[in-house]
Design a protein that fits this description.
Blueprint: H1 3-13, E1 21-23, E2 26-32, H2 51-58, E3 65-68, E4 81-84, E5 93-94, H3 100-103, E6 109-114, H4 120-126, H5 133-143, E7 144-154, E8 165-174, E9 182-189
Parallel strand pairs: 2-8, 3-4, 3-6, 4-5, 6-7
Antiparallel strand pairs: 1-2, 7-9, 8-9
Helix pairs in contact: 1-2
């Protein structure tokens, strides 16, 4: 799919929201998702309302999905894999992210959705030690198919190597007042 097709797919799925812009082979936009008071998860750091549906609308051609740092995710489709260090929500694989390559081979996924702890305070809340995000992003490039995708949700623009990934898009995300503004960085395997 072309980047323009992905933007159009999103617009068809969410016609009442601001459209994404396809420009020079990249996606750009800003999502103001609002506070959803009927959320089924009170888990710290869970995806904002409609986040997963919006992302899925961009990647209808990607059935093999890995949810990295899956936490309390309960919207998993058949065949999708969840991976988290905590066993609290019974991920498909419970392990430290530094062991990612022990579990998966080359080209195993079409799409990886990653929502890592953002800052030191997040690691403290989860009771986990910080890890090298740059290394995890590199490892992800080894387990996605050629031209596969990584969608990284964070409060920073993550470091990556152009030898492994091409930048496909950047979407700002704000939930509501007194919430951190995040960035959705979309990579395509180089």
């Amino acid at each position: 799919m072309r980047v323009e097709d992905r933007a159009e797919n999103y617009h068809r799925a969410f016609p009442d929201y601001s459209p994404l812009i396809a420009h020079n082979g990249r996606l750009y936009g800003f999502w103001l998702v609002g506070q959803y008071y009927h959320s089924t998860s009170s888990y710290y750091g869970s995806y904002p309302h409609s986040y997963l549906a919006r992302i899925r609308s961009l990647f209808p051609d990607c059935p093999r999905v890995l949810h990295l740092f899956s936490g309390s995710l309960n919207e998993v489709k058949l065949g999708e894999i969840t991976y988290d260090i905590s066993g609290e929500f019974a991920p498909t694989i419970q392990d430290d992210v530094s062991n990612l390559l022990r579990h998966f081979g080359s080209g195993e996924f079409d799409l990886i959705l990653a929502d890592p702890p953002y800052e030191a305070r997040d690691f403290e809340i989860y009771g986990q030690k910080p890890f090298d995000k740059r290394q995890v992003i590199k490892d992800c490039s080894k387990i996605v198919r050629a031209s596969g995708f990584l969608v990284w949700l964070d409060v920073i623009f993550p470091q990556f190597s152009k030898a492994h990934w091409e930048l496909l898009g950047a979407i700002g995300l704000a939930q509501s007042t007194n919430h951190r503004t995040r960035q959705i960085t979309i990579f395509q395997k180089a």
